[in-house]
Amino acid sequence: MKKLIIAAVLAGVSLSASAADTIRFATEAGYAPFEFVDSNNQIQGFDIDLANAMCKEMQATCTFTNQSFDSLIPSLKFRRIDAVISGMDITAERLKQVAFTNAYYDNSAIFFAQKGKFADLAALKGKRVGIQNGTTHQKFLMDKHSEITAVPYDSYQNAVLDLKNGRIDAVFGDTAVVQEFLKKNPNLSTVGDKITDQSYFGSGLGIAVRQNNTELLGKMNDALAKVRQDGTYKALYTKWFQQ
Ligand code: ARG
Asked: Within the chain, where are the H helices?
């Protein structure tokens, strides 16, 4: 086998088929239940299970690395990775830089704070609200709520820590992630309604690949359709969002 590969290399035969067998994913794994690092230091979550199911379908080996959210798209463009799965909203702005698979999850965003402290969004006027750097939440706050002070964090958990010890007044994030925090923190609760404004929060979550990587994009969309069809998607959805 080794000889054959060497022969192929010497003959200048492209090995792209075998190179495509490894797909390097990156994520920011501080965003349960989409992605988080477990007590064994393994990256886990709905996104990881979904990507692995798709990789099985594509007969590819997938690797996952954990890095800051705002570095994900740059890493993709610089070819350090091949794909991003990170609870990432498919937005018009991001589509100028990367391509996305079909949506795999209907997303929305919501604020949360100490229970009973703020009756509605208007009550957050002049308050400090934590958001993660590079997210749609950050952009939405900057553009639509200049009366609120956006406090940027690299990790969402640090924002929640600061909320708990009173350094900030609220945190803004994706609904499923907020629900996960609320489960563990009964003295926190949501403020206002879910926000789905498509011009900010896009048309669902997608996996990002480089714009010129149409081959991988096609394979991923096929694999996604397949795991939806054979019940795998449904099982993962139940496992991570309905327990
Ligand atoms: N859905 C938001 C966005 O696309 C936030 C995603 C943050 N994800 C993460 N893994 N930290 O901007």
From this structure: 2-10, 16-19, 46-58, 72-77, 92-95, 136-144, 156-164, 175-184, 198-201, 214-229, 232-241
* Ligand 1 touching residue 69 (CB < 6 A): yes
Distance 218 CA to ligand 1 centre (A): 23
Q: Which atom of ligand 1 is nearest to the CA of 27?
A: 10
Task: Output the CA torsion 218→224→228→233 (10° steps).
Answer: 180
Query: Does the C-beta of 49 come closer than 6 Å to ligand 1?
Result: no
Amino acid at 157: Q
CA nearest to 155, candidates 61, 35, 2: 35
Which atom of ligand 1 is least distant from the CA of 107?
Answer: 1
145-172 pLDDT, tens per residue?
999 999 999 999 999 999 999 999 999 9
- Count how many Cα atoms sit within 13 Å of the Cα of residue 70 in the half-sphere of its side chain: 14
- Cβ(87) – ligand 1 distance below 6 Å: yes
Pairing state of beta strands 208-209 and 99-100?
Answer: antiparallel
User: What value of ipTM does the predicted structure carry?
Assistant: 0.98
DSSP 8-state class, residue 205: B
What is the end-to-end Cα distance of the chain in Å, rounded?
A: 47
CA of 177 to the centre of ligand 1 (A): 10
Tell me, what amino acid is at 212?
N
